[in-house]
């Protein structure tokens, strides 16, 4: 099936008050597992490659991107490619030729006016290339080993009035909002601020995105989608599934040296995790 665009999938989901699952991929096994999991439940899906994943791959975007494009084009469900949490303008400019239809430009670490200026410049360039662009306002924490922000810390939640101005002035196509989740959580204990989500959904006219969804329990995810979240980002949950399955396999088979044996076990664990998460969002 030909690649579809992220904007197409998210716009359709937002109109239907549903959400598309977007999974961060690091290896070819991640790519294959996400597509197989989505196929098993007949659901569209977004493959995401983060700037950190590119750094892991020796700073080279194309090897993983080309593999993802090839796998997506052979999928039985619609698949889109998204470049996630991009801070590097050089990496941003590689997106169109690498097969990505969308980017998440991350300047949320900057003061508001600097975030706005950097995001506006990225939006102007991305739109000229036909890219759909997501940004973030508010800080989730949890990336690169940093702790989650305290719920009452300045900037730990997205302010609806500020978000309205940011969207209008930057021209972004979607906004990732901070409502209580955090990146890299290994336990599903996050509690979302659904009252804040309602105010954001009532205030903004662009699709809303939830980052750090691996730490959000099923019932909270279901409520978030009902409250207006149209794109749900998942990364750590796949790594937990893969690593746990490989760890168990190697403990039971200490003589194993063929990487295909344990990678296949890890991949199948991710397939199940993908199907389970998509099922929660359906």
Automatic annotation (TrEMBL):
Binds 2 Zn(2+) ions per subunit. One is catalytic and the other provides a structural contribution. InterPro entries: Aldolase_TIM (IPR013785), Class_II_FBP_aldolase (IPR050246), FBA_II (IPR000771). Zn(2+) 2 binds at residues 106, 136. This is Class II fructose-bisphosphate aldolase family protein. GO terms for biological process: carbohydrate metabolic process. PANTHER family: D-TAGATOSE-1,6-BISPHOSPHATE ALDOLASE, D-TAGATOSE-1,6-BISPHOSPHATE ALDOLASE SUBUNIT GATY-RELATED. SUPFAM superfamilies: Aldolase. The active site is at residue 84. Keywords: Metal-binding, Zinc. Coiled coil: none annotated. It comes from the Bacteria. One of its GO terms (molecular function) is zinc ion binding. It holds the Pfam family F_bP_aldolase. Zn(2+) 1 binds at residues 85, 183, 211. Its cofactor is Zn(2+).
């Amino acid at each position: 099936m030909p690649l579809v665009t992220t904007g197409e999938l998210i716009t359709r989901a937002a109109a239907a008050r549903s959400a598309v699952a977007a999974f961060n991929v690091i290896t070819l096994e991640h790519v294959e597992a996400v597509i197989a999991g989505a196929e098993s439940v007949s659901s569209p899906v977004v493959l995401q490659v983060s700037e950190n994943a590119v750094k892991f791959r020796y700073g080279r975007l194309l090897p993983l991107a080309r593999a993802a494009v090839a796998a997506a084009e052979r999928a039985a469900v619609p698949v889109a490619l998204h470049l996630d949490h991009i801070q590097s303008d050089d990496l941003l400019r590689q997106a169109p030729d690498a097969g990505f239809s969308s980017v998440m430009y991350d300047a949320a670490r900057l003061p508001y006016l600097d975030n706005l200026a950097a995001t506006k410049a990225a939006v102007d360039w991305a739109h000229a290339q036909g890219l759909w662009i997501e940004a973030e306002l508010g800080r989730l924490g949890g990336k690169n080993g940093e702790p989650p922000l305290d719920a009452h810390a300045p900037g730990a939640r997205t302010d609806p009035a500020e978000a309205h101005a940011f969207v209008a002035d930057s021209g972004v196509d979607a906004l990732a909002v901070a409502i209580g989740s955090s990146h890299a959580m290994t336990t599903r204990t996050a509690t979302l601020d659904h009252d804040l989500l309602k105010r954001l959904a009532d205030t903004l006219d662009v699709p809303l995105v939830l980052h750090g969804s691996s730490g959000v329990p099923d019932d909270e995810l279901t409520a978030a989608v009902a409250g207006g979240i149209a794109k749900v980002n998942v990364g750590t949950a796949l790594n937990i599934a893969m690593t746990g399955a490989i760890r168990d396999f190697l403990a039971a088979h200490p003589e194993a040296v063929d990487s295909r044996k344990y990678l296949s076990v890890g991949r199948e664990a991710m397939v199940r995790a993908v199907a389970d998460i998509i099922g929660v969002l359906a």
